[in-house]
Each structure stands twice: as structure tokens, then as C-alpha cells.
């Protein structure tokens, strides 16, 4: 079951790697990838390994939330019928980030580490469901095909920029 979802996520990522993806496709693929990592983390008992998976989740979340905040939500906020959901989404990001900061401050062997990580995962899962069930369908109605492709392009270049930015941050 776990291996199957990981395999499916990998296949999906691979099969669409060269296709021209629109903004929603790209964000959905990120969601699939992070969900697969949640499955892996939940299935892993070894603490060292859990921490390694968590680092990957953190990196995925950092890039994904950043490109949504830089590109996707601002585009949504310009459309009357999307504005409120985009603002709510930003608020949910803030809550998740606060949890991530709290987790960063914990010692690796803290007994609070697992409960806080699970809470963060539950928050992200809720947020992702809201985006997929409420925001994304409305975005598909509000923008035409070309606009969504263009938004996808902008997400792609923001992803490149945010990767460079976080490397610079780490090097500093
Ligand atoms: Fe989001
Ligand atoms: Fe998202």
C-alpha cells in the first residue's frame, strides 16, 4: 500500500515531466510528492530515518509554499471570487510555518518531536484538501487554458529562484 503510493507518485511525476503543465497540475504534483513522504514518515520507526524524511518534507514545503505565496495566491487575489480562499490559504501557511519553527527549536530526541510533526502533517493535509477541493476547481473556472499555462511558467521560474535563494541563504 505504501510502496504502491510511492510508486504511483514517482510514475506520475515521471510521466508528466516533459508535458506542458499548467499551474494547477504543477501544484497537484507537489501535493502528491509531499503526501508520499508523509506516508513514508508514518511507516518509519527508525528515528534517524524519520528525521531524514522530515528534512525532505520541510524542503518540499518550503519551496511549494513560497511559490504559491509569490505567484499563485497573488494571481488568485486579483480575482474577486478567489480572493477570500487565497487569503485563508495564506493564513493556513502561517499556521504551518509556526509549527515548523517550533519543531526546529526542539531537540532531536525530544518527546514532543513526534506529536508536533504529526500535528504539522495534519495541518498540511487539511490545507492541501482545501486547495484541491475548494480553491483549485474555482481557479480552473476563473482562468482560461492559456492563463493557467502562463501561471505554470511563472511558478516554474519562481521555483528556480527559490532554490537559488535557499542555497544562498544556507551558504550565508
Ligand atoms: Fe498552499
Ligand atoms: Fe499547495
List keywords for this structure.
0% strand
Strand content: under 5%
So how many helices?
6
Q: Spans of 5+ residues with little confidence (pLDDT < 50)?
A: none
Structural class: mainly alpha
Gross geometry: globular
The overall pLDDT average reads 90
Q: How many whole angstroms does the radius of gyration measure?
A: 17 Å
Please, could you describe this protein's structure?
The chain has 172 residues and is mostly helical. The protein has one domain. Helices cover 87% and strands 0% of the residues. It is built from six helices and no strands. The protein has helices at 2-16, 23-43, 47-77, 80-104, 113-142, 145-171. The longest helix has 31 residues, at 47-77. It is globular, with a radius of gyration of 17 Å. The mean pLDDT is 90. The structure holds fe (ii) ion (FE2) (2 copies). The site of one fe (ii) ion has 6 residues, from helix 2, helix 3 and helix 5. Residues 65, 68, 89, 93, 127, 131 line the site of one fe (ii) ion.
Give a short overview.
This protein has helices at residues 2-16, 23-43, 47-77, 80-104, 113-142, 145-171.
List the topology elements.
Elements: H1 2-16, H2 23-43, H3 47-77, H4 80-104, H5 113-142, H6 145-171
The chain binds fe (ii) ion (2 copies).
Amino acid at each position: 500500500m505504501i510502496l504502491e503510493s510511492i510508486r504511483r507518485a514517482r510514475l506520475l511525476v515521471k510521466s508528466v515531466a516533459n508535458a506542458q503543465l499548467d499551474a494547477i497540475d504543477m501544484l497537484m504534483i507537489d501535493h502528491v510528492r509531499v503526501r508520499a513522504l508523509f506516508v513514508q514518515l508514518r511507516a518509519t520507526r527508525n528515528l534517524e530515518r524519520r528525521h531524514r524524511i522530515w528534512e525532505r518534507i520541510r524542503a518540499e514545503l518550503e519551496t511549494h509554499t513560497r511559490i504559491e505565496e509569490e505567484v499563485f495566491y497573488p494571481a488568485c487575489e486579483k480575482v474577486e471570487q478567489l480572493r477570500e480562499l487565497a487569503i485563508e490559504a495564506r493564513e493556513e501557511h502561517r499556521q504551518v510555518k509556526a509549527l515548523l519553527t517550533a519543531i526546529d527549536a526542539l531537540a532531536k530526541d525530544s518527546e514532543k518531536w513526534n506529536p508536533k510533526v504529526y500535528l504539522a502533517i495534519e495541518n498540511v493535509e487539511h490545507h492541501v484538501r482545501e486547495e484541491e477541493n475548494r480553491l483549485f476547481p474555482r481557479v480552473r473556472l476563473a482562468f482560461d487554458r492559456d492563463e493557467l499555462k502562463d501561471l505554470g511558467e511563472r511558478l516554474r521560474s519562481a521555483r528556480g529562484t527559490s532554490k537559488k535563494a535557499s542555497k544562498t541563504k544556507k551558504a550565508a
